[in-house]
């Protein structure tokens, strides 16, 4: 299954350079897991930092109206 010819579409990967807020905490947690052979008891500090960061980001930047491609398709239906 692919897209229909002639429909509007924006590639979401072009927006991949946007801010990734918890990347540093996630990388430090994954590095700790790697060094300790996947024993998360020894990485409790990094795990708590990652959890705190993720909880702080959970309410921010939510898009309740769906993706931009959904709206482009919805608006293009009205033009026909």
In short:
The protein contains 3 helices and no strands. With 80 residues, it is mainly alpha-helical.
Notes on the structure:
- By secondary structure, the chain is an all-alpha fold.
- Helix 1 packs antiparallel against helix 2.
- The model has no long low-confidence stretch (mean pLDDT 78).
The helix/strand series, from N terminus to C terminus, equals HHH
Largest sheet: none
Q: Tell how many strands the DSSP assignment holds.
A: 0
Distance between the termini: 22 Å
How much of the residues is beta strand, in percent? under 5%
DSSP helix fraction = 40-55%
Number of helices, counting only DSSP H or I runs of 4 residues or more? 3
Using only C-alpha atoms, the radius of gyration works out to 20 Å
Secondary-structure-based class equals mainly alpha
Low-confidence stretches: none
The average pLDDT score comes to 78
Shape: elongated
List keywords for this structure.
80 residues; mainly alpha; elongated; 3 helices
Could you outline the blueprint of secondary structure elements for this entry?
Elements lengths: L22 H13 L8 H14 L10 H12 L1
Helix pairs in contact: 1-2
């Amino acid at each position: 299954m692919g897209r229909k010819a002639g429909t509007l579409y924006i590639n979401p990967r072009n927006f991949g350079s946007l801010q990734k807020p918890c990347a540093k905490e996630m990388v430090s947690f994954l590095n700790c897991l790697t060094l300790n052979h996947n024993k998360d008891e020894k990485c409790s500090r990094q795990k708590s930092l990652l959890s705190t960061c993720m909880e702080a980001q959970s309410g921010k930047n939510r898009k309740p109206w769906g993706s931009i491609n959904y709206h482009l398709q919805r608006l293009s239906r009205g033009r026909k």
